[in-house]
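Re: that chain you flagged

S.,

Sorry for the slow reply, it's been a week of failed gels. I finally had a moment to sit down with the sequence you sent. For the record, here it is as I used it:
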Amino acid sequence: MLFLKGGWELDESKKEAALRETIEEAGVRGIVGGKLGKRSFKSKTHDTFYEGYMFPLLVEEQHEFWPEQNVRQRTWMSVSEAREVCQHWWMKEALDRLVTISR
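Prediction finished late last night. Pasting the structure tokens below so you have them in one place:
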């Protein structure tokens, strides 16, 4: 599951940004599925709101090294474990939507 935080460049689509972010932040590459949800959130460092989009990702490659590996941790877990550690209701909602469409 990927939670894209609205950090896409002007010359890329949201799905292209999601692919780029998966490599930068988690060191994985795969197939991005359809949008699971959208959420507005306030920046922790700036006094502004951003849009975040949630997409599922079917992981096809896992890299041993990636750009943000010193500041991010990649953890594989079950759906129930993921639901327990989701910090926001909208993340749980996106996870529930993914489980529903996967059945």
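What I noticed first: The beta strands are 2-4, 28-32, 37-42, 49-55, 57-62.

Talk soon,
D.
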